[in-house]
Amino acid sequence: xxxxxxxxxxxxxxxxxxxxLGQVNIKGVVNDTNGNALEGVNVVIxxxxxxxxxxxxxxxxxxxxxxxxxxxxxxxxxxxxSYKSIDxxxxxxxxxxxxxxxLLNLQTIVVTGTFEPRIQLESSTSVSSLELKxxxxxxxxxxxxxxxxxxxxxxxxxxxxxxxxxxxxxxxASAEDDFGWYYISLQEDGLPVSLVQHSYYSPDxxxxxxxxxxRVEAIRGGSASITALNAPGGIYNFISHDERxxxxxEIQLQSGLQGExxxxxxxxxxxxxxxGNNWFFNVGGHYRYDDGARNTDFVxxxxxxxxxxxxxxxxxxxxxxxxKILDDYTNRWTxxxxxxxxxxxxxxxxxxxxxxxxxxxxxxSIPDGRNLTQGATNSFNPSxxxxxxxxxxxxxxxxxxxxxxxxxxxxxxxxxxxxxxxSISNAFVSLNDPTAYFISDTSGSTFPLGQVVFRNAIxxxxxxxxxxxxxxxxxxxxxxxxxxxxxxxxMGTSAxxxxxxxxxxxxxxxxxxxWKNHDFxxxxxxxxxxxxxxxxxxxxxxxxxxxPKMLQVTLENPGEPIIYLSDENGVSNYGGLFYxxxxxxxxxxxxxxxxRWKIADKFYLDLGLRLETIGHKGSKDRYAPIEEVGGVxxxxxxxxxxxxxxxxGEQDIFNFNYxxxxxSVGVNYxxxxxxxxxxxxxxGNKAPxxxxxxxxxxxxxxxxxxxxQEINQLELGLKYNLKDFSFVSTAFWSQLKNISVSDFAFDxxxxxxxxxxxxxxxxxxxxxxxxxxYTPFQNMTFRFNGVVQNPKATSWTVxxxxxxxxxxxxxxQDFSGNQLPFNPKLMFNLSxxxxxxxxxxxxxxxxxxxxxxxxxxxxxxxxxxxxxxGTGYTFNKHLSVNLLITNLFNSEGLANFFxxxxxxxxxxxVTTDFIQANPDASFVVVPVLPRATVLKLNYxx
Length: 941
Prior knowledge:
Immunoglobulin-like; Maltoporin, Chain A; 5% helix; elongated; iron transport; siderophore uptake transmembrane transporter activity; transmembrane
């Protein structure tokens, strides 16, 4: 026994001795083809946890490597991945690697839209990525503004950072202005920013772009059907910086002017490095102060965010903790008036580049109809716009289980608030229209005919006095005295207050098993959101002019008491236009399987299934106008608080589940090392969002569930990666079925706002996407991407309420076969970039083709072009400066169309017959944002 113990001890010592003797160091330098050192290159010994990241001199060092045969992987975004077989013996090894440019990142590993990391060239999906160079060529105008650089992606960022629209391949019908990401998953590090959407509550509210983003990956359709929660239209994943082997970071100072000289200031910073024992950290964020692209009397945006992650890497995987604190104020631009249906021009002295028809700043407390007996009020100040707060924390775990099994779990908790204090609608309301007076009190207790007085709400000075006694007899108003109102009108607008809250938890777990010819993944995704919504709308008396002013309005008939149609701030009809109070618990549970099967040496088959169940359980308050004589304050002479909508004590309950099966099958054939063909067929589904309940079933039982939309897609593509030229071209066919469409309408008889009954429709789009890059000279690069498509509303009807709640005069209009609105047949980006020594420059042309303004195809938004210019100078490896000019020639392109310039109408109300009957009528459009010039100063350390 003693001898056996001695032999075992001797054997252990021998193994340890030989292991120590067999440990060597691997050193090296990584350069680009111009001989410049590359920082941040990942050098990994495949199949082990040995790795390093090159420093600013391009140097890496991996220590204490045990003897054996290995493959060394050298990868960096923007460069082709290089592999080197190495034989580790007793001597230290030293290498020099030169990485070639990967012009379209086709040999870069992508993690979006797939269950396992995969080189883009070998993927059977249409994947695009934006690297740091492109991210730094944009001015701070929001998420959607950046994404228009991605091939085939339609974005409408005319409203600013929020209230944007993003979609692809004609999958757009339910992507409305107030929740324009309907089919898209906006993600940060692989998980959605937000689980739910409804009016004025989209994921862009909680997302800001800054230096903390390392790259963006995008999937258009295809595998999004099986890899994203309820988002078959695509995935846009913003990926944060990860480990840095050396302490360092960057500070960026931005200062600029927009529109007519409105200032913008922003500071960004990131910092990261090792903490020892394979721990790494990254922190970053920004703060900005922005007067806005158009003219208002308040700061348009201010605030920022802080993000962090802490990573532990170990022999069998990693554990990452991450989080975000967003605390931000911003707003969104509304439309402006135009005339001439064939060639739109600004109307009423407005300007497409500078006019913002928005209420000015003021403070008012409006009674809260939910808790009136407790004296509750809601503060309202339109200068605050949207206040967005997001506190998020999560962890991401990857564990190698041995025997080619691994598990990954990514989970995130968040609490969100989105409080809107802004104006909706800015329509022209003639003083000869009874709506201008009767909307002050929709209870019917006030009959505001006679002498109406308008005063400046700030100074109290009288602006105009008129007599409207003859308007019901067809006689125009008569001014009394010399004062008049601009354009003989007021603005039809609502003081729009929304309080949205959500507590969310989401999780994705993936179990992976690798065999010789199979890469099998299975798992489940979970998402739970406890959300609430309160919406209250009041009327605001505002002048209709380029710089609107609030109006105090009174009825002052001789010998009678003064009737106050508005309060001292100009707010009227307290809480009488809108009342929605709802809460909902949303559950999203999905299980999935996917197998990537290597059928032959260069041929892969990708098969995936996803079974998903969406649950909506909640309640919606019933409401009615206050019944007390004299309204909230009991004073019969204050008409502005007579119509407050209050909770009746009754609620309508909804509890519906939506279950569906989605699939996606793709193939990839590698023609040669630098080229591949791919094809994919997918069937996805889209369950209704909460808007279905919140916008419908007004004071009636929620007695039916919404329709599940079906998305069928086919795509066939070619990827080619040469030394100086790369391209990806994808032909696609997409079909969207069971589209539920409803518009809000205004009843002129009782001044109420309602939603029309849903219509179920269908659309189809066929097209070709492409992205390409060409480097004819060492210092010159050309980029060209875009889409040509034919979007059709194959079966489409619109409900016409004829301007009243009364259904006896309603009709259904059929527009089947028309062009799908807001989808251009052609859009592209063409740019050239120059880089030599310390000087860099770029020039970009963004073209947006003609789009139909509605499904009636009665009005077309003209094509437009935007040109962007940038130049930079690098003083040394630490300091650089860049000048960026967006919309260089101040294009007045029109991005959106809201319909005729009348309160409570929608774009679908404009038909060919309407235009023929109203050739000189004004209408509301939303122009693209004007020129912005930004100077960036970067310090890297």
